[in-house]
Amino acid sequence: MARYLVKRLGQSLLTVFLTVSTVFVLVRLAPGDPAKAYAGPFATTEQLAQVRRQFGLDRPLLEQYWVFLKGLVHGDLGTSFTFQSSALRVVLDRLPYTITLAVAAIVVTTVVAVPLGVWMAKRADTRREFGANVATIAGQSMPEFWTGIMLLTIFAVLIPVLPASGFATWGGLVLPTVTIAVLQIALISRLVRREMATNFAAPYLTVARSRGVGERRLTWRYAMGNASVPVVTALGTRFAALLNGVVVVEVVFAWPGVGSLVVRALETRDYPLIVATVLVTSALAVLVQLLVDLCYPLLDPRVRLGKAAS
Amino acid sequence: MSDTVATTSPSVAARPSAVTARDLARAGATRRRRGSTIKLILGAVCTVLVVVPVLLAQVLPIPDPAGQDLSRRRLPPLAEGHLFGTDALGRDLLSLVLHGGQVSIAIGVLAVTVSGLIGVALGSAAGFFGGWVDAVVSRLLEAQMSLPLLMMLLLVVALFGPSLPVITLVIAFAQWPEVARLTRSMVLVEREKPYVAAARVLGLHRIEILLRHVIPNIVKQASLVVLLLLAQAVLLESALSYLGAGPERPFATWGRIISDGQDYITTSWWLVTLPGLVIVLLVVGVNLLGDGLRDRTRRRKAKKA
């Protein structure tokens, strides 16, 4: 177990490191000059040179990378060009908002999608289930930004009951959460349906039923017990993906999270900020996936971490 | 299966049986068959409704998408011969949507083709050869999972410019793991079948076996996922374009049209609603087609087993 944990942590660190290094090189290889974005369109050549010297952009790529690595060890990712403060600090300030949104969305998704999926599996091939099935297809076919704007129009403009943007009150959390949840519910409930249908058709369930096990226990204890590993995996993956970027929804609702930050950082070519965002979000995502993996032995006693899993 | 129902119903009526034709029509298998047929028809109708006008955009009697007319700004739908109304610059919205759609759909099809080719090549190589090839491909697949995908895509487009090749490649890069994973698992099954051993005994080279015998056997199943990927590609392209990382030339695509219209959402609802509905119609159609087809093949496989 301990060895498994060490091995997985090592792998995770390596993944994050490689991701960040890729981004570091990528931003500097690409055309476009952050000094110009920083100094404005009317800057003179001397001013541009001055800006480049200030941020160390005039030095060779390898030297910049070395400085970056040294800073990384100390938890210093450089100064954001636009915010004029520690890039890591800027990202960490925004992070709670993204985490709030991601947690709210995944909780709503779980609460709705799991019962919905179980219901669809039980009522398979009835007319109502067919309707729900088509509805989930529609749910996964709507672009998030469009759903978001539509909800905004209905619930903030036509019937002004909820705030349209930002996060001033808890009411502001409702529309972004619903927007994200629509897509996630569609995806997760279909997975739950598939997994549960497989288990309902399995011989062990017939045996249990013939032994007189109650229908509720059959569903939630027997079938759900076996379906839980893939379902939790999917929920974990979706949650990690949400932490990585609810970019679109954050932009639609002017949510002060990491997603809208990254769009701005890209526009201004704020190298340290881009790298810091990628570092923080990918580290979080990897951590979530690790936690999900650690849950497996709790869900399924047959799983022994480090043996079959690796 | 509906054929079998149709042919057996009379004989059922002829011989003494408690099973009536009505029972058969109510049976789970019949319902599933009916469900997949409805999905296929519905999907085909939705897809055709979008794709045909988009392909005929140059032929249809609609105004020029670039034709600005500031005196006819933000006309509501159905006004003065503008079926979808006009945008903030007085351009015909329907025409914009159809011309932009050509770009969106072209990007989607190209991206899926590229990701399909990469995915099948890498996935089948990993499944068939195993060993270090499998190790490398599997690690790549895992790494992809933990990448902040949309952020990376935005980054690449922001850095290398929103040209058609860049956006196509970026979407293909996002999608190849799905194909690769599927192909790999299918090749793993196929590899153990007797015909592969037979081919090896006959002296065929391993690459030849893979290309001429294994891949033709899986390509039909693998191609089903293509429809679902196409739907995702269209969505991804629209999201990129909404965030300002979409193609500008020759025409702005759907996401961009919506993000332009967002500023007028309080007064001109159609600028966002109608282009969005077109996206939804297309993606729902393609998803329904894919889902219906998958339901059918799954059934056929179950019958064989």
SSE layout and pairings?
The complex is a heterodimer of chains A (310) and B (305).
Chain A: H1 2-29, H2 34-39, H3 45-55, H4 61-73, H5 87-122, H6 127-139, H7 144-158, H8 174-200, H9 203-210, H10 215-244, H11 247-252, H12 258-267, H13 271-299
Helix pairs in contact in A: 1-13, 5-8, 5-10, 5-13, 6-8, 7-8, 8-10, 10-13, 12-13
Chain B: H1 2-14, H2 21-26, H3 28-55, H4 93-129, H5 131-146, H6 149-160, H7 164-191, H8 194-201, H9 206-242, H10 254-261, H11 270-304
Helix pairs in contact in B: 3-4, 3-11, 4-5, 4-7, 4-9, 6-7, 7-9, 8-9, 9-10, 9-11, 10-11
Description:
The complex is a heterodimer of chains A (310) and B (305). Chain A is mainly α and 310 residues long. Chain A contains 13 helices and no strands. Chain A is flat. With 305 residues, chain B is mostly helical. Chain B contains eleven helices and no strands. In chain B, helix 3 (28-55) packs across helix 11 (270-304). Chain B is flat. The relative contact order of chain B is 0.14.
The greatest interface here is: A-B, 52 and 48 residues
**Tell me, what's the shape of chain B?**
flat
Order of helices and strands of chain B: HHHHHHHHHHH
The largest pleated sheet of chain A is described as: none
Question: How far apart lie the N and C ends of chain A?
Answer: 11 Å
Q: Which oligomeric form is depicted?
A: heterodimer
- Helix segment tally of chain A: 13
Number of strands of chain A: 0
Q: Globular, elongated, flat, extended or rod-shaped: what is the shape of chain A?
A: flat
How would a crystallographer describe the biggest sheet of chain B? none
Q: Which structural class do you get from the secondary structure elements of chain A?
A: mainly alpha
Beta fraction of chain B = under 5%
- The residue-averaged pLDDT of chain A reads 84
Structural class of chain B: mainly alpha
Could you estimate the helical fraction of the residues of chain A in percent?
A: over 70%
Secondary-structure element string of chain A = HHHHHHHHHHHHH
